[in-house]
Amino acid sequence: MGYYDENNNMRTNRQSKRGMSWFLPSAFGAAVGASVMLVAGPFVSNIEQPSSNQAAVTTTANEDVAASNVSYNVSSDITSAVEKAQDAVVSITSYQGGFSLEDPANQSGQAASSGSGVIYKKENGQAYVVTNNHVVEGASSVEVTLSNEKKIEAKVLGTDPLMDLAVLEIDGKNVEKVAEFGSSDQLKTGEPAIAVGNPLGFLQGSVTQGIISNPNRSIPVDLDQNGQPDYEADVIQTDASINPGNSGGALINIKGQLIGINSSKIAEASVEGIGFAIPIDDAQPIINQLEETGEVKRPVMGITPASLAEVPTQYWTGTLNLPKDVEAGVVLMGISPNSPASEAGLKERDVIVKLDGNEINTSAELRKYLYSSKQVGDEMKVTFYRNGKLQTVTMTLANQNGI
């Protein structure tokens, strides 16, 4: 299954690249460093050390001081939240080639990528893991390492490049913990957020703490890495550290509930503390479809869209014959045969400006409206310019996998 069939032949100079990258105005840089310092203090044999739950008291010989024991409670809400969710987070390694756990002595495959995943369900002897699409994309085999370090081969049930999600199935024999779903719709700026994952590919079970910086951030997504956004994704922004390898891991709330799937991080010298997670309320319908059918059903028009801003301005009033006051919209670069767009009478070089009366300025906005507001089989009014004249047609949306 590929991303959005309408975009397959959009431009001949596009190159298919693996993975999902968040399209951002500045260059994307990553700098990862890790250092561990162990400081050991010498033990002094003639000094009695206070126990961990007692306070040490220093006095002079002539002072009459009443000694008392002080108890310290080291547990906290954050500790409790981590204990509740940590064992449901796994490490994922994707291999290319002939790797198999069944015959470890005869291997030709190599680890292609690593990331994290979250066990969200256990049923009928099987367990199900959600992770990022880019963690398993192109893999010939996938290995899951549980929190108890047991390794299990995984079957990829389905992937969704658009939302950067994938669902895996594993033997549930050794699975002891399943994540509890929370709600991302009720998140508030400033509330605690905890990221759990496998940073750098080998620090399994690492935990970082932060806050919800913005519970409903929209960012452009460039799937084919051509420099043009293909979709506007709604994400949770957090300053909890999300490092390479954390992809697919859990973002949890103070109750230890899963509120997001970690997906990316900005790591620049000038930008610190910006991480993104897929909201769990947006992810759940996708997860369910991938588990049940292996694919996601989305409505399509049957067009190859391009934002008007991508077209040189000299063609706006010439080739496209647009009125001078039209400065945004979506140009139809192609129409699929027997598609909703074709049956509604749309043609190449038509410029869409509204869907159901809502202004559409870019191809990313067009897709977001389709995927968030419409279903397969819905009717939709399309307002567009053709040869300088504003027109409106109605179409019935089809399944993207049927065109």
TrEMBL record:
Transmembrane segments: 21-44
The keyword Nucleus is annotated on this UniProt entry: no
GO molecular function: serine-type endopeptidase activity
Keywords: Hydrolase, Membrane, Protease, Serine protease, Transmembrane, Transmembrane helix
Pfam families with a match to the protein in the record: PDZ_2, Trypsin_2
GO biological process annotation, one example: proteolysis
Domain PDZ: 299-388
CDD domains: cpPDZ_BsHtra-like
Family affiliation: Belongs to the peptidase S1C family.
Protein name per Swiss-Prot or TrEMBL: PDZ domain-containing protein
Phylogenetic lineage: Bacteria, Bacillati, Bacillota, Bacilli, Bacillales
